[in-house]
Specification:
With about 475 residues, chain A is of the alpha/beta class. Chain A is built from 14 helices and 19 strands. The chains are: A alpha/beta (about 475), B mainly alpha (about 270), C mainly alpha (about 200).
Chain lengths: ~475, ~270, ~200
């Protein structure tokens, strides 16, 4: 099974798509021929229509949501919508790719839909699970899997249908580094075995560049800006791509920024013997953790998913009440942070959550920056001035009246950081601040953190992002199984 | 604080726990529907007694059941009290007469009957639900009730997201606190904060739902091919026996209520 | 090969796409989570003292929201009923002490809202239809409780009070708040796959 080459040829003929309710085309005038078995990385700045194009190739764009379309997409000469069963797709978040609660059932789902007879299903499921190196049995609950394992399972669910084309939309974006490595390794083996055509969009280009043999760059206004072997394209357009916020891998891209030590200062935050055990769990998420953070210092917290590092961040931020121990600001040690009133807390401690949307509480970007100071009782004029400063500094001034939820990923991130900074806290807790960000927002975030630290703020950043950790961290704390090792 | 109580251990091999999902629901539904017809202590008492006695056969521990069902006990008390006050059967000896509130032996009796009845309607369903795996229920709905597979499995996929959204609910509460909201005494502000939190949860729900729909269609969920099923669990003799037992119990309860003269149809009881 | 705005064919208009089914279900699951929170945290402290008094329905409006919200978002026949039933089923599975009683209430409440949308031939989705649907769900809840469920032994005049309270809460909480909620959802862009999310001007 899967020994023969089964890739399909994909052709786009001056293809375009405009969503209902949008004046601009998501994608327009794209002419592209992808040979059977070719592996193509699709690039372009934010808003260049990469995801729309992938969905179009997968035949999953709903005509009901289109205001206008042009051209066509063919898979081995057939319209994409008619070739749907020859295409496998993977999305960013494995949580929203899985359907069933048991692993085996989930892989079987795609075969049931295709009407495969029941007695053929389970052998194929087992083969697909083996193909992706899934170590558990069919009965393993999908909820008990890590993100990387879930994404491997989702890959098995796609491969079991024996697709001729694999369409992957940032398949490793939500994973931690070990998860990314296993998923990409699994993908490479599966492609070698099945010979499927690959069309992939991925933020962190350096990790997939080995996997592909061709790079296609979409131009923001429409059409294809560049097309060729990875080395050639990056050599030709590396600078342009970087300006659009695309991560360009070494040796073509800029080297990562160098670390500069922070000024340091008096201790500001101290956590003593903090332990947390969540209800209905056996193991402590955090066990007798001690940590002191100084002004003008950036502490980077690393560790695998589920190690307890986010729990630590929540306790340090005064957002989670630990079972024992406490985090306190050393200049007001009487009350532990988790017992502070929310309106007082936001003046001293700012927390940036991984998902920006979780933090939005108003209808416009500008209001987001004004409401925190209002709650904290900060002078209105001062707050307005600071809001305008922050909007300009984070390139959000033109979006001041936009609904926060309608912004792009990078804009949402910048707004959520700006909203937290609006109350001028002197301790900042950041949970995966660079998650899913393009290169431009990434550099801006780093610079902002460095500036804040130099101005005397204390920073704690929980991150998987090694480059960010190297460039910012004055000190590194590793969390493993709820225990800290400095 | 976890919102969803999902971690109840059930011995899935217990005689009633291992029955077909729909059969379990059906067996719980039969007495419930019959009890909806009357407010009397006899039929409700018999069903409630049988349900309580059957608890070990469901493979559910008493402690787990209590943890899950204690609000029900509270509700029984409240339903009893409310009906005792607001019924118009105020015969028998007066117990309390405080202006508009008049409570008599008759009104207490009818209140108690209403309370026991609510428990008798709810408890079998609680037991059935505690022991049902949603996947089995979806399979059974499609196979035995011919529910369209797209709706059964579409909603099943959403089931998987419920615990994830419950976790998100907690995160949203923390995110609000980080912005300076929460813990307000002022009820207007508290309601506003709650509404904002609900809104954020729903935005996330729609976004997740849209992504999930794409993932499902990518695996051919909307294909026109006749769907097959990888899992097949036939209705067996034990299932039939369980349903029959439920019918017999219900019939005995209703008959005894009628024979003893306790049967009190709801439509004319007002 | 270019085309402009197409008027949806009847099959398109009545038929459920996967995204309709799944988003209705996930919305329902979100409400199910809220119900579970309500059942386990709010109910015992706030609403239990009120339970089974004629004013009890005033705080029960939250239960009716999925029907109105589901109907307004998906705009298909059966959407209100489906969303309400899935929400009640999910809350039944995740920590309701009420067992099947929750499911049965969900069916009635969903039917109440569904009937209103049906009487409008599934063509009207504005503010007035929303509050009518909320009122319909409230009326169905009130009638169900008053005739066969928890307050069956009430005197008839108290039953009338109870039903009126149910209609009021349905109108305000499910109808008005439901409508406001869907409008706000549309403004976030999350409803782009639905007609409900495309009713504003192009951006």
């Amino acid at each position: 099974m899967g020994r023969t080459l089964r890739g399909a040829r994909v052709s786009l003929r001056s293809w375009g798509w405009r969503y209902a309710g949008r004046r601009a085309w998501a994608c327009r005038g794209v002419d592209l021929d992808i040979e059977a078995g070719e592996r193509v990385l699709l690039m372009g700045g934010s808003g260049a229509g990469k995801s729309t194009l992938l969905r179009g190739v997968a035949g999953l764009l709903d005509p009901e949501t289109a205001a206008e379309t042009e051209g066509e997409i063919l898979v081995d000469g057939q319209p994409a919508e008619a070739a749907r069963d020859r295409i496998g797709m993977l999305q960013q978040d494995p949580e929203t790719s899985l359907v069933m609660s048991r692993s085996g059932d989930d892989v079987a789902f795609g075969l049931e839909n295709a009407g495969v007879p029941a007695d053929e299903i389970w052998p194929r499921v087992d083969a697909a699970l083996a193909q992706v190196g899934f170590g558990y049995g069919r009965d393993r609950p999908t909820a008990a899997l890590s993100g990387g394992e879930q994404q491997r399972l989702a890959l098995a669910g796609a491969l079991v249908r024996r697709p001729s084309v694999l369409v992957l939309d940032e398949p490793t974006a939500n994973l931690d580094p070990p998860g990314r490595t296993t998923v990409l390794g699994t993908l490479e083996r599966a492609l070698d075995e099945a010979g499927s055509t690959l069309l992939i969009v991925e933020h962190r280009v350096d990790e997939v560049v080995e996997l592909v043999d061709r790079v296609v760059v979409l131009a923001p206004g429409g059409g294809v800006a560049d097309d060729g072997a990875p080395g050639d394209v990056f050599a030709r357009r590396g600078r342009d791509l970087e300006r659009d916020g695309v991560w360009v891998p070494a040796p073509w891209g800029r080297p990562p920024p160098a670390y500069r030590p922070g000024p340091g200062g008096d201790p500001l935050l101290a956590a003593n013997e903090v332990s947390v055990t969540y209800p209905h769990t056996e193991r402590a998420a955090l066990h007798e953790a001690d940590l002191t953070v100084r002004r003008g210092e950036a502490v980077v917290v690393t560790g695998a998913n589920g190690s307890g590092k986010s729990t630590l961040a929540m306790v340090l931020a005064g957002l989670l009440r630990p079972d024992t121990g406490a985090a306190r600001l050393l200049d007001s040690p009487a009350t532990p942070l988790h017992a502070w009133r929310a309106r007082d807390l936001c003046r001293r401690v700012g927390t940036v959550f991984q998902e920006p949307e979780h933090q939005f509480v108003t209808r416009t970007a500008r209001q987001e920056l004004l409401i925190g100071p209002k709650r904290a009782g900060i002078d209105r004029d001062a707050a307005a001035r600071r809001a305008d400063d922050l909007l300009a500094r984070l390139r959000l001034d033109r979006l001041a009246e936009a609904n926060p939820f309608t912004l792009s990923g990078g804009e949402k991130r910048r707004l959520s950081v700006a909203a937290v900074l609006a109350t001028a806290p002197d301790l900042l807790i950041l949970d995966e601040p660079t998650f899913g960000q393009d290169a431009r927002t990434w550099s801006e975030l780093l610079q902002l953190c460095v500036d804040l630290r130099d101005e005397g703020a204390a920073l704690v950043a929980v991150t998987h992002d090694e480059t960010f950790a190297d460039a910012l961290g004055d000190r590194r704390v590793e969390v493993a199984d709820g225990k800290l090792s400095p | 604080m976890t919102l969803l109580q999902t971690s109840l251990t059930v011995n899935t091999a217990a005689p009633l726990a291992r029955r077909d999902a729909l059969v379990k629901l059906g067996a719980a539904l039969v007495p419930a529907l019959a009890l909806l017809g009357s407010v009397d202590p006899v039929s409700a008492g018999i069903v409630l007694t049988a349900a309580v006695l059957s608890v070990p056969a469901w493979g559910v521990r008493w402690s787990g059941l209590l943890r899950r069902a204690w609000p029900l006990a509270l509700a029984v008390v409240m339903v009893t009290a409310g009906n005792a006050v607001f019924t118009d059967r105020k015969g028998g000896a007066e117990l309390i007469d405080a202006g508009p509130v008049l409570i008599t032996t008759d009104s207490v009796a009818i209140g108690l009957a209403a309370g026991v009845r609510i428990a008798a309607i709810a408890l079998p369903g609680v037991l059935a639900v505690l022991t049902i795996d949603p996947v089995d229920l979806a399979d059974s709905l499609v196979r035995h009730l011919k529910v369209p597979a797209r709706f059964a499995y579409g909603s099943l996929a959403a089931f998987r997201l419920a615990p994830i959204m419950a976790a998100e609910w907690d995160v949203l509460g923390r995110a609000r606190r980080a912005r300076g909201f929460g813990g307000d005494r002022n009820p207007v502000t508290a309601v506003q904060v709650f509404a904002g939190r609900v809104f954020a949860l729903l935005v996330g729900a729609v976004r997740r739902g849209t992504a999930l729909a794409v993932a499902m269609d990518a695996r051919g969920f909307d294909a026109s091919a006749t769907r097959t099923s990888a899992r097949y669990r036939p209705i067996d003799r034990g299932d039939v026996a369980m349903l029959a037992g439920s019918f017999v119990l219900t019939a005995v309860a209703v008959t005894l209520a009628v024979v003893t003269g306790a049967w009190n149809p709801v439509i004319s009881s007002g | 090969m270019s085309r402009s705005e197409t008027s949806a064919s009847p099959r398109r208009r009545w038929g459920w796409r996967t995204v309709d089914i799944v988003v209705a279900s996930v919305l329902a699951a979100a409400f199910g989570v809220l119900f579970a929170a309500w059942n386990n945290l709010v109910y015992p402290t706030i609403s239990a003292p009120l339970a089974s008094s004629p004013a009890a329905p005033l705080i029960a409006g939250v239960w009716l929201m999925p029907a109105v919200v589901g109907g307004l978002v998906v705009r298909k026949p059966g959407a209100a009923l489906f969303t309400e039933v899935v929400a009640s089923t999910i809350s039944m599975f995740f920590g309701s002490a009420w067992g099947l009683a929750v499911f049965m209430s969900g069916v009635w409440q969903g039917l109440g809202a569904e009937l209103v949308f049906a009487l409008l031939f599934y063509r009207r989705w504005g503010f007035v239809p929303a509050i009518l649907a909320g009122a319909g769900a409230g009326l169905a809840m009130g009638l169900y409780e008053a005739t066969v469920s928890s307050i069956a032994p009430y005197a008839w005049d108290w039953k009338v009070v109870y039903v009126l309270c149910a209609v009021a809460t349905g109108t305000v909480v499910a109808g008005v708040l439901g409508y406001v909620l869907v409008r706000a959802l549309a403004r976030t862009g999350a409803l782009a796959p639905f007609a409900a999310g495309r009713t504003q001007g192009e951006i």
